[in-house]
Amino acid sequence: MTDSTPPQDTPSENAVTEDAPSEQSQPQDVSALLTDLAKQQNLPLALFAAIASCVIGGLLWAVITVITEYQIGFMAVGVGFLVGYAVRTFGKGITPTFGYIGAIFALVGCLLGNLFTQVGFIGAEYDASYIDILLNMDMELMKTIYTETFSPIDLLFYGIAIFQGYKISFRQLDDEQLSTLGNA
């Protein structure tokens, strides 16, 4: 005997209900989000921000050190933060390139901070213009300044600055963007 009852619609494990988003739409949402974020990246502006912020950070480092006559290693951390923040704000980067820019220019900012500090001390001692000292400085004098003022602890602070410059350089995603990525 055959059953003439029509089959009932029972949800199967593979069925997609109208209330739940399909698993296939999730990767498309993530892909669309990542594409949109990648389009918003601005590498030239990130480079400009990195250069400007490392010079500003180096100058602030020098001013504080010359005024206090005390070398504060945490200034390197501040330079790393400043550079990373500038790269993130203006570059809006999500790719590792932006982190590398932040790391490199954080180190450059630290090196400039040390150089500008010594220029400040030389200028104060000889009552000379800082600009004149910088313009008349050659590579041999810079090498001498770096070798005579180097301390092993500088490596620790430079390393922290590089890490901060890298880590902070990436764009921060808002809650909606994070939930889209989290649901993937």
Rg computed from alpha carbons, rounded to a whole number of angstroms = 27 Å
Largest sheet: none
Count of helical regions = 8
Helix proportion: over 70%
What fraction strand?
under 5%
Poorly predicted regions: 7-25
Order of helices and strands: HHHHHHHH
Alpha-beta classification: mainly alpha
Overall pLDDT confidence: 85
**Terminal-residue CA separation:** 49 Å
Shape: elongated
The count of β-strands is 0
TL;DR?
The chain is mainly α and 184 residues long. Helices cover 72% and strands 0% of the residues.
Write the layout of secondary structure elements.
Blueprint: H1 25-40, H2 43-68, H3 74-91, H4 96-126, H5 130-135, H6 139-149, H7 152-168, H8 175-182
Helix pairs in contact: 2-3, 2-4, 3-4, 3-7, 4-7
Structure description:
The protein is an all-alpha fold and 184 residues long. The chain contains 8 helices and no strands. It has helices at residues 25-40, 43-68, 74-91, 96-126, 130-135, 139-149, 152-168, 175-182. The longest helix is centred in the middle third of the chain and has 31 residues, at 96-126. Mean pLDDT is 85; it is low at 7-25.
